[in-house]
Amino acid sequence: MSGAPPPPAAPPPFAASPSLAAQLRRLGVRPGARLLTHASLGGTGLRAEAVRDALLEAVGPRGTVVAPAFTPENSRTSSAHLARIAGLDAAQVAAFRARMPAFDPLRTPSQGMGVLAEAVRTAAGAARSGHPQTSFAAVGADAGEWCASHPLESHLGEETPLGALCRGGGQVLMINVGFSVCTAFHLAEYRIPKPPLRMYECVVKVNLPGGQPGRQGERWTAYEDVALDDSDFAEIGTSFPDSRVRRGRVGGVSAMLFSIPDAVDHALEWMTENRR
Q1: DSSP class of residue 77?
Q2: Which domain holds residue 166?
């Protein structure tokens, strides 16, 4: 018989690298897990999509993969925003801020969160919470539920996807990064008695008057929230008991896996004793 061979079958959704998925399982990732992921893949040779798909393979259909999809440049005071306007005069700063687009959970890329966070945000079926500065992206069984609520006045508190992950017994997976970027520690800042507060400002979409459904504009809005401070997170992580951390290698780089409730409890104890 002659003729071309039949085309190969289409790969299944989220076709993962068997080796990466196996390494994640050896580290301790189990089916049904809820994972808050942090990764720095630059220079590792790992493709973000391959890591994302391996994570989804490891947690299975009952699990959920979550990543910070923050947009810190949507601000008047963040270090990311101040870096963007450095060297501009007052008129140029005003013009720059007038042009800043409002946060759009469907389209606005994350900023400084890494390629894995973007791979999670852009995955088929992914959900994203609606906070204009500290949104989360998620894909998996609980993605829509956990991203449904994220009040403006709570960056990383109990009412956010981070709080939901903690209540649900989620875990933190860190690939090629250290505790200095451990978002889970921020939840402890909301549990400190009388935490320090500050004002934040960002650009948001608003419904415009005029009787046209869905007609939207943009405006700056201000709100008060906990004064977030990650300057001591590396030190907090240094004292996190080794017995509570599973360590290994994924894709040839270091990885850590630990419980979000354990991390928050440890951070709260450390902050209560050491922050003034």
Answers
A1: S
A2: 18-90+107-193+228-274
